[in-house]
Amino acid sequence: MPPTDATANAGTAPVTDTGPTSPTAPEGRIGPAADAGADSEDTLDLHLPDEFVALFAEDTGADGSRSLGATATATATATTTATTTAGPASTSATSAAIVERAGAGTTTATCASEAPPASTTPNPDDLLGDVADWGLLSTPAGALHLVPVRIERDLPIISRWMNDPAVTAFWGLAGPDNAIEEHLRSQLVGDGRSVPCMGLLEGTPMSYWEIYRADLDPLARHYPARPHDTGVHLLIGGMGDRGRGLGGTLLRAVADLTLDKRPACARVVAEPDIRNTPSVAAFLTAGFRFAAEIDLPAKRAALMIRDRSLRHLL
C-alpha cells in the first residue's frame, strides 16, 4: 500500500456514511461537502429602489418610532457585539501534504467579519497523541510494539524492505537510502499528523507502519472524511512473515488499539491498491469493511474502514 508523507479540532465523528461522491462536484471536492462549500460561496445581493428606501428613511413623527435605517444599524451593532462576545467560530487549517507524490491542500472559508484564529499550527497532542506511549499490544501472534522510527537505527532495514520487488509494486519507494530517508524524515520533523513506526513482534523488527490523520491528509479529498479519521499503512517486511495470515491479525490489533487510544476517532481507514488482493483480504480479515473504490493520483484504491460502532461485530 502506498505511503503518505507528513508535511482541525473536532469532536467524535458520527458513524453514518455521508453518501457517494457527487458527479457534478468540481475536481477535488466531494459530494455533500462540495454542495455546502458552494452554498457558502454564493451571496444574495438585493437592492431596493431608491424611492422605497427614501420612504422608510424618514421618521414616522409623533409616535417616536425609529427609521428603517436606524433600526438596521442598531440590529447590526447588536449582532456584531454578540458575535464579538461569543468569539469567532472555530476553524481548522490544513497545510499542504503529499500523497503518492501528488500535492494537495484544503482551504477553509471564514467570514470577513470574524477575527482569524491566533494560530493555525495544530497542537501535536490533538493530532495522534504520543504513539510511542501506546505500549505493548497483545495479539494472537505474540506481543507487538509500535516503535517510532529512528533513522540512524532503522533506515537500513526499511530501505531493504522498500527495494523488495514485491513491495515496490505497491509502495513505489524503491531507490537509494537518501530517498527513503527523505520520506521518513518528512514525517518525523512534521507536526505529528503522521508517525512512521517499526513493528516489533516479540522484540524482532518485522513490519513498517504509518499511523496518520486521514482527515488532515490529501486522501480526504477523495472520500467523505470525518473529523479524527485515522489512517494506517502496513508493510510486512520479511518474506517469511508474508502469506500466513499475519497481516490481518496485526491490522485488527493495531486498528483496535488506535480506537482505544484515540477516543475522538470513530473510524480507522486504509486505501490499499485495488490490485493488491492479499492486502485487501488482510483488511477484510481484520474487521475492515470495503466502502468504495476511489481514484488516487497514482492508483485506484479500495477504501477500507474499521468502524468503532462495528468493532465487536466484524
UniProtKB/TrEMBL annotation:
| Residue stretches in coiled coil | none
Listed Polar residues bias regions:
1-10
Please list the residue ranges annotated as the Acyltransferase MbtK/IucB-like conserved domain. 147-195
Q: Which GO terms describe its molecular function?
A: N-acyltransferase activity
The metabolic or biological pathway listed in the UniProt record of this protein is: Siderophore biosynthesis; mycobactin biosynthesis
Ordered alphabetically, the record's keywords are: Transferase
Q: Which domain of life is it from?
A: Bacteria
Residue span of region Disordered = 1-41
- GO biological process terms, semicolon-separated: siderophore biosynthetic process
Indicate whether Transferase appears among the record's keywords: yes
| The keyword Iron belongs to this UniProt entry's keyword annotation | no
Main function: Acyltransferase required for the direct transfer of medium- to long-chain fatty acyl moieties from a carrier protein (MbtL) on to the epsilon-amino group of lysine residue in the mycobactin core.
Name this polypeptide is given: Lysine N-acyltransferase MbtK
Organism ancestry:
Bacteria, Bacillati, Actinomycetota, Actinomycetes, Kitasatosporales
